């Protein structure tokens, strides 16, 4: 068993996590199944291709064969999530399946690799529960509704930007009004 897979196996077993280990000539993997709240059951896959502590973490086929008419809107949603979750990457593969990949630190020490893998599993659960409703909305909500919501969101952003730009001017005017009121009293 590759060293990284063995280290993950020890921690996952100690935490009573349900998982399977697969060993082939080319790679070894640990698959951890879990359910996304109000979403599908998926597998979080920890892959190792050598005896080092370099791990690839992947959720393959979160959504299969995204329809062409939904890809642009979904990609916009995925880009937003990629900006929000710095170490997790949401992307469409060449077959238009939605995959999720996590960037594991390449030179993680033996003493922390297993616990780090478990932490990534827990964080992935949280991120997927938060993200899946956005993905589902991009895939299944009617176009008109999404356009109206996007327009409302843009209007809110514009209003906040205007308020932020004028924040100092508003404070100055309020201060002057308070000063002039103090003079008349």
Q: Can you characterise this structure?
A:
With 185 residues, this protein is an alpha+beta fold. It has two domains: 3-141, Yope Regulator, Chain: A (2-Layer Sandwich); 142-185. It contains five helices and six strands; from the N terminus they run αββββαββααα. The protein has helices spanning 3-14, 68-84, 110-140, 143-165, 167-184, and strands at 20-23, 28-35, 41-48, 56-63, 88-92, 98-103. Strands 1-2-3-4-6-5 form a six-stranded antiparallel beta sheet. Strand 1 and strand 2 (28-35) form a beta hairpin. Helix 1 (3-14) packs across helix 3 (110-140) and helix 2 packs across helix 3 (110-140). It starts with a helix and ends with a helix.
H/I helix tally: 5
* C-alpha end-to-end distance: 83 Å
| Gross morphology | globular
Q: What percent strand?
A: 15-25%
Domain unit count: 2
Largest sheet: 6 strands, antiparallel
> Rg, please?
24 Å
Which secondary-structure class do the elements indicate? alpha+beta
- What is the count of β-strands? 6
Widest beta sheet: strand line-up: 1-2-3-4-6-5
- CATH-level-2 architecture of the largest domain: 2-Layer Sandwich
Roughly how much helix do the residues carry, as a percent range? 40-55%
CATH fold annotation of the largest domain: Yope Regulator, Chain: A
Q: What's the CATH class label of the largest domain?
A: Alpha Beta
Q: Could you tell me the mean pLDDT?
A: 85
Give me the strand/helix succession: HEEEEHEEHHH
Q: What ranges have pLDDT less than 50 throughout 5 or more consecutive residues?
A: none
What secondary-structure arrangement, pairings included, does this model have?
Elements: H1 3-14, E1 20-23, E2 28-35, E3 41-48, E4 56-63, H2 68-84, E5 88-92, E6 98-103, H3 110-140, H4 143-165, H5 167-184
Antiparallel strand pairs: 1-2, 2-3, 3-4, 4-6, 5-6
């Amino acid at each position: 068993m590759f060293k990284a897979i063995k280290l993950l196996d020890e921690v996952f077993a100690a935490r009573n996590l349900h998982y399977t280990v697969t060993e082939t000539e080319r790679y070894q993997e640990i698959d951890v199944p879990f359910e996304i709240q109000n979403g599908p059951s998926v597998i979080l896959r920890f892959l190792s291709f050598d005896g080092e502590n370099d791990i690839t973490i992947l959720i393959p086929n979160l959504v299969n064969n995204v329809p062409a008419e939904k890809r642009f809107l979904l990609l916009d949603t995925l880009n937003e999530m990629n900006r929000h979750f710095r170490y997790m990457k949401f992307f469409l593969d060449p077959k238009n399946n939605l995959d999720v990949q996590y960037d594991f630190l390449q030179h993680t020490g033996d003493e922390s690799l297993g616990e780090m893998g478990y932490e990534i599993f827990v964080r992935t659960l949280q991120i997927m529960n938060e993200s899946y409703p956005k993905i589902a909305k991009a895939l299944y909500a009617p176009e008109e509704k999404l356009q109206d919501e996007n327009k409302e969101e843009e209007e809110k952003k514009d209003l906040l930007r205007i308020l932020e730009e004028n924040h100092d001017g508003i404070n100055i005017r309020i201060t002057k009004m308070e000063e002039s009121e103090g003079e008349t009293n």
